[in-house]
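Key result, reporting period 2: structure in, sequence out.
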């Protein structure tokens, strides 16, 4: 299985950070892609962590669901 270190979408790329890429969807929406890239103390490691982006997205979705009554 390969790691997701580079996102390739047809949307305009707003920003590529150390571990996340941000794309423009429309005037009110952005898409944040969590990759498998690993960064610590401002250093990007060569070896990504497989499925890191997927797991971080699942954790975020869990908490978005748990706090939807607040937001």
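The corresponding designed sequence is given below.
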């Amino acid at each position: 299985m390969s790691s997701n270190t580079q996102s390739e979408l047809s949307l305009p790329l707003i920003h590529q950070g150390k571990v996340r890429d941000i794309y423009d969807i429309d005037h009110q929406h952005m898409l944040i892609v969590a990759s498998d890239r690993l960064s610590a103390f401002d250093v990007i490691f060569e070896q990504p962590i497989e499925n890191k982006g997927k797991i971080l997205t699942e954790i975020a979705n869990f908490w978005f669901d748990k706090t939807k009554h607040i937001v």
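The chain has a mean pLDDT of 90. The chain has one domain: 13-66. This case is discussed further under Risks and Mitigation.
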